[in-house]
Amino acid sequence: MNLSARFDESRNLVRFCRRPGHETLHADFTASFGFREMGSRMSILKDVGTAPGPDECFAHIEVDARRMFYKLLGLELEFPGAPEELLTQMQPYNSMNYYRSHIEEHFCLNGVRPLPPLRGLCTICFADTDRLQVSYELSNVGAAPLKVRLRWFSVPDRHFPCTFADGVLSSRQKVIGEYDIAVAFQAERRDLSFQDNGERLESAWIDVEIEPRGNWSTSFCIAFDDSTSLNVPPMPSEGATAILTAAKKRMDAVYAALPSIPLQFADYEELVLRAVGILIANEHTSRTLGGDSVRTIHAGKAGVCATWWWDTACSLLGMGLLRRNEAARGAMRLLLEGVDEQGVPCARYVNGKYFRGHQQPILAWGLERFHQLSPDPALVADSYEGLARYVRHWLRDCDSDGNGLVEYPPGAVCWDDSLRWQSNPVAFAADRAWYKNDWGKADSGAVENADTNANLYTECICMAKFAQMLDKREEARGWRREAARLRELISEQLFDPELQTFQDRRVGGAFTNMLTPSCFMPLYAEIPEPELALQICERYLLAPEHFNTLLPFPSLDLAHPAFRGGGFLKERGSSLSPQSYWIGRTWPHVSFWMVGAIYRSGLQREADEAADRILSALNRSESIYECYDPMTGYGVGHAEFSWSASAVLSLAYRLYREV
């Protein structure tokens, strides 16, 4: 895909700046929009009306981002000899081009007559992982020499105690756990060392004279590490211009390697490029428990800074299209090293810690999709035993009544606040007021789920393929037997003849009578006969009164009285929790499965039309969000989200057509 003719436009994809609360889920989640690259564990924002240089800086070392600096690096200017009253009237102005590879800030001074003949350019990019390059260039556009006094400063967030010595700021942060963080400043000029005055770090003033029509430049290297032993690094030998050129080439190479977008969805090229940028930006350099450095994929940048189980599985499709094999290998390694001897998986890995819990069993599916797009036999071989152990755990340990169908374990992390887990029927009785209805308590372990069992069926199919690849023929036959058994049980016990679709069912009891996308995952898995699958799609998925909303397909039937298109965050202890997270919002990764269900049911034209509607709705926003209001298409979850970016790529490249 040759984008060289549109390079500048295509790279300019997002504003890495502070957003209003309604855009960022909450003001505390503004780091979702932070600029980061090269798998860095830090990100920065850059706003208008601030001193030239990077503004807020966030550490993404724990699951939630933490601000390290209110102002990472800023430039102050004085003009020796100019009248004081003129200097006090000057008003700074800056504007930015925000690229995926770098930020370009143009600045000048306004508000006085005559105007000073000074223009400035600040360029910010990553030299490598956790090493930021900040370059300044001042231009004298006048006919006489221009004298300027310059000073740089930095304002740490001292919410946690920090110390500054020998050019290194050290602090101990606490989010869920504690971690050390160190930031080292190195200036190209030896006379620009920083001192701590108790409020901010400052350099000494330096005097510069710029020749007529001439330029003056300098640069800084800012290095980060999650330790207190960081030393001030030397300035990069390659120079600021070479570092910026390399950063541009990295993104050029990613865009240029993209396959051509199918003509049907070619109008969504900018959305596709946005999705590519998000997936690349959400790559993260992590360490295994053994201390090895690996590249992985995070769900997002704020509130979700971790390698999650089902997020990774969904992201692997987009990563496969981009051939991000290194990050895929790292993510699979981190997750599968967290599967214990009994096969119990982790929900996420972050900063050297595993958090036990179950998410939907789809990791083998994600790897199989990845391998089809970017073949990696070694990754399949390395992953097989861990995947086999976790799938067997589901089959063996998550079936409380021994009927062959699994339940979603209590306390598991998926579909979070969904009403499908309630112990009593979620309904509004005709003989009493709505507020007297008792929906009971959430208890996922008491429900046999249509999606979990269908996903497990798909995992067995994928494991059979892997075993065949690895010449484990007997194991391949065993996986196929498990798949056939699950297929029969899902068809017999999780199909509701009254509603004529698949349903969640309480263990040993009745169907939940709640339609969600879970009901249609057996269609994606191609479990029912084509004629039945087609009828289910026409009755529910393609019906505007049920799931075919402006942005298809909501996480709860539109016809259900409890349907909610979204909700704001509420305080819960010291954290924030979403409202109506899975009680109606549309989730792009789920919508991809629903489009696949429609296509596999024989409704190819309808599947393509649904994909087009989803891409069209997502294209209205500058970012790509975790989830959306299905009635408006407005993003109501975390921005810059990996599985949604992967879903965009999967839809635009019509991966739902592949079996």
Structural account:
Helices cover 30% and strands 22% of the residues. It has 659 residues and is an alpha+beta fold. The protein is elongated, with a radius of gyration of 27 Å. The relative contact order is 0.10.
Q: What percent strand?
A: 15-25%
Tell me the overall shape: elongated
Helix- and strand-based class?
alpha+beta
Q: Rg to the nearest angstrom?
A: 27 Å
Compute the average pLDDT: 92
Which segments are poorly predicted (pLDDT under 50) over 5 or more consecutive residues?
1-8
- The number of strands is 26
Which strand order spans the largest sheet, edge to edge or round the barrel? Answer: 4-5-6-7-15-11-10-9
The number of helical segments is 15
List keywords for this structure.
659 residues, alpha+beta, 8-stranded antiparallel beta sheet, 7-stranded antiparallel beta sheet, 22% strand, disordered N terminus
Would you kindly provide a brief summary of this structure?
The chain is of the alpha+beta class and 659 residues long. Helices cover 30% and strands 22% of the residues.
